[in-house]
């Protein structure tokens, strides 16, 4: 660690903060600090000079500690400074084939570097997270890595659903990339509704093999990343039939391409599904089967088994078979925070540089960030990024704890974890996608340009709303758990509910919430009352439908609106409580200056979240017009108080320019120069006159002469 960094750490411990000249703790910036300072946009520099806290301290929390910070910086230096991993031409000017082939080239380089890190003992889970699903990976392969599903889904599925013997056989091959896998569950005709999957695996007890078939076009596997032309193996989820009886869905390891020639195996119909809104280099594919035989021991049998004679042994809990998807949904909460961090960093920096529309006609055009309407668009996205990061860390720890319990055979908290991961995946991904779009709009016409990186950011973030469980279906799954919990509490007020739904009992014991003060604590408690009442309404209407003769499934459909509203409010109540507990706890561990920022972000997040749902609050909480006016004025006050520090706040996310990949959001703030430089890269600008002039335009203009 450089001696000057030791000096800064000493200053932080002594609670002395550096505001002037902005000694920014980015070890691996491409230029010396003096050079950076001399080229930074003066408006942006003035914002940094006026900050009241040290962004490095925020960065350390964001990264999870000094050690993780230093490892991240070293990792960024290793990968971002490698010229082989840089693109001279923007992806927008590449063909579909070129994008894929370039992504494979870089994915292989990344894999080789990972091997090198492993060989010297420097490989960790955080390294994989950064390169496969985190901000660093998006910088290197901004439209997706065709090998990601291999690491994120294929390997974890074998680990989570394979026996020890199967893990020994397959994990080493997959870990060494001797084979490349994908996870094939979703089909052309069915996605989140797993019971509707049509791919069949019929067990042939004489040959002790499973025979896989796609009986219809809609049974074709559709969407798996890397399936098109990258993977040669797949974990295939199919209907399991033994002794001519349907048993359950089951996962099978299937070889789909020859290991030497990469040609499709007999009976395999495989290809790529074509261009998409985003994730253009993910190589998503389709896969069909015609009498494809796989050995008995290729069915992953940790949770359910088929014996050689066809005897079926079911899992202890059917949810055990969905463990991989639950893990990914937990990870996606963190990804939502990263998406908002990138989008808000771009929008904030641009808002500090862009000057337009005088507020006072007697003064020069102001920074657009001085317009309160601009603040209202952008600042809450910064707060959400911080809250989602804190929540993602907490839920990840919860998942790790529950997973340990499951390994020991304790399944009591599995339904709670499933319900929580479903609704938070839905709420956070929806907020991230809409937040990215709000930030794009906040950047005006320039936000529409590809060089802003908003098109890619939006394409990647909105995809999360549908993959790993479409959001509406995720909310419905959570809602079923919630109404069941409410029913238990309604029948027996003394029942012990699990921690994340314990608040439901509040409205049973105390039907009305009175004395709303507008404090952070009051907003959190009000959120719980609102969520509990939404759950109550869903429960009561379900019961009413069934009393009138509807079967549970029909009743659930008829009450679907009430159920998704209940699940969404449950997720937002959890986010509010987590924001309160975590940010207040953090405020006790950091310097007074950063503590004030955390408290302000907490207030902004909670007040904004409350006002976004004010109709529900008015319905279930005793609120007066004065209370609502107070909330609106409190929101404006939060925006005003955050304004002097917001540039430094997004600087604290410590996002490298390569990671942002935005002409609008670069650290130096030279927006217009970068926009113009991006325009000059257009292949059309390589010639003064395009051939279409002589071929089409000139004959048109001369045709009437």
Automatic annotation (TrEMBL):
Family from the record: Belongs to the acyl-CoA oxidase family.
Cofactors named for this entry: FAD
Record-level GO BP terms: fatty acid beta-oxidation using acyl-CoA oxidase; lipid homeostasis
Coiled-coil features, chain-numbered ranges: none
Principal subcellular localization: other
Record InterPro entries: ACOX_C_alpha1, Acyl-CoA_ox_N, Acyl-CoA_Oxase/DH_mid-dom, Acyl-CoA_Oxase/DH_mid-dom_sf, Acyl-CoA_oxidase, Acyl-CoA_oxidase_C, AcylCo_DH-like_C, AcylCoA_DH/ox_N_sf
Residue positions binding FAD: 186, 225
Superkingdom to which the source organism belongs: Eukaryota
Biochemical pathway: Lipid metabolism; peroxisomal fatty acid beta-oxidation
Keyword Ribonucleoprotein: no
Molecular function as annotated in GO: acyl-CoA oxidase activity; FAD binding; fatty acid binding
UniProt-recorded name of the protein: Acyl-coenzyme A oxidase
Acyl-CoA oxidase C-alpha1 domain residues: 322-483
Source organism (scientific name): Glossina morsitans morsitans
Keywords tagged on the record: FAD, Fatty acid metabolism, Flavoprotein, Lipid metabolism, Oxidoreductase, Peroxisome
């Amino acid at each position: 660690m450089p001696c000057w960094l030791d000096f800064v750490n000493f200053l932080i411990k002594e609670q002395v903060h550096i505001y002037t000249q902005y000694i920014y703790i980015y070890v691996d910036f491409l230029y010396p600090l003096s050079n950076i300072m001399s080229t930074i946009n003066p408006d942006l520099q003035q914002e940094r000079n006026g900050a009241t806290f040290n962004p490095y301290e925020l960065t350390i929390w964001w990264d999870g500690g000094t050690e993780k910070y230093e490892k991240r910086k070293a990792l960024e230096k290793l990968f971002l400074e490698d010229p082989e991993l840089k693109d001279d031409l923007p992806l927008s000017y590449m063909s579909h084939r070129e994008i894929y082939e370039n992504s494979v080239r870089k994915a292989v380089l990344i894999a080789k570097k990972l091997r090198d890190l492993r060989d010297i003992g420097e490989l960790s889970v955080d390294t994989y997270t950064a390169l496969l699903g985190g901000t660093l990976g998006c910088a290197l392969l901004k439209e997706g890595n065709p090998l990601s599903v291999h690491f994120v889904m294929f390997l974890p599925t074998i680990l989570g659903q394979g026996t020890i013997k199967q893990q020994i056989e397959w994990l080493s091959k997959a870990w060494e990339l001797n084979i490349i896998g994908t996870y094939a569950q979703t089909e052309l005709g069915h996605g989140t509704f797993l019971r509707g999957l049509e791919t069949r695996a019929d067990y042939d007890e004489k040959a002790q093999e499973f025979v896989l078939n796609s009986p219809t076009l809609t049974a074709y596997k559709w969407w798996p990343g890397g399936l098109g032309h990258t993977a040669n193996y797949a974990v295939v989820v199919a209907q399991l039939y033994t002794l001519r009886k349907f048993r359950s869905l089951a996962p099978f390891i299937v070889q789909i391409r020859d290991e030497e020639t990469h040609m499709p195996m007999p009976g395999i119909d495989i290809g790529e599904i074509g261009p998409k809104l985003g994730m253009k280099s993910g190589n998503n594919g389709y896969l069909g089967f015609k009498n494809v035989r796989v050995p008995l021991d290729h069915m992953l049998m940790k949770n359910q088994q088929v014996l050689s004679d066809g005897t079926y042994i079911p899992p202890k809990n059917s949810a055990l078979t969905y463990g991989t998807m639950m893990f990914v949904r937990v990870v996606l909460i963190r990804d939502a925070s990263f998406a908002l961090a990138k989008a808000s960093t771009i929008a904030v920096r641009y808002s500090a540089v862009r000057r337009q529309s005088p507020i006072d006609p007697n003064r020069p055009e102001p920074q657009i960030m001085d317009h309160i309407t601009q603040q209202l668009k952008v600042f809450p996205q910064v707060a959400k990024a911080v809250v989602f990061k804190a929540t993602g860390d907490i839920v990840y720890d919860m998942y790790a704890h529950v997973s340990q319990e499951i390994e020991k055979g304790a399944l009591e908290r599995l339904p709670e974890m499933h319900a929580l991961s479903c609704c938070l995946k839905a709420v956070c991904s929806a907020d991230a996608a809409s937040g990215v779009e709000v930030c794009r709009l906040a950047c005006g016409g320039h936000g529409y340009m590809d060089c802003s990186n908003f098109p890619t950011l939006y394409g990647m973030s909105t995809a999360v709303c549908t993959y790993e469980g479409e959001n509406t279906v995720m909310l419905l799954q959570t809602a079923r758990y919630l109404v069941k919990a409410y029913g238990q509490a309604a029948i027996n007020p003394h029942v012990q509910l699990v921690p994340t739904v314990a608040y439901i009992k509040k409205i049973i014991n105390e039907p009305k919430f009175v004395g709303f003060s507008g404090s952070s604590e009051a907003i959190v408690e009000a959120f719980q009352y609102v969520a509990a009442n939404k759950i109550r309404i869903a429960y009561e209407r379900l019961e009413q439908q069934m009393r009138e003769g509807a079967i549970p499934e029909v009743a659930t459909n008829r009450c679907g609106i009430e159920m998704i509203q209940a699940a969404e409010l449950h997720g937002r109540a959890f986010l509010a409580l987590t924001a309160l507990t975590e940010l207040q706890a953090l405020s006790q561990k950091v310097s007074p200056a950063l503590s004030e920022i955390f408290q302000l972000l907490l207030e902004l997040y909670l007040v904004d979240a409350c006002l976004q749902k004010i109709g529900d609050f008015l319905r279930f909480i005793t609120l007066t017009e004065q209370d609502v006016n107070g909330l609106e004025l409190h929101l404006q006050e939060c925006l005003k108080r955050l304004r002097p520090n917001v540039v430094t706040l997004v600087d604290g996310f410590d996002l490298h320019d390569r990671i942002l990949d935005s002409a609008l959001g670069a650290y130096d703030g030279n927006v217009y120069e970068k926009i113009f430089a991006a325009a000059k890269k257009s292949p059309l600008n390589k010639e003064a006159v395009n051939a279409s002039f002589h071929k089409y335009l000139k004959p048109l203009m001369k045709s009437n002469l």
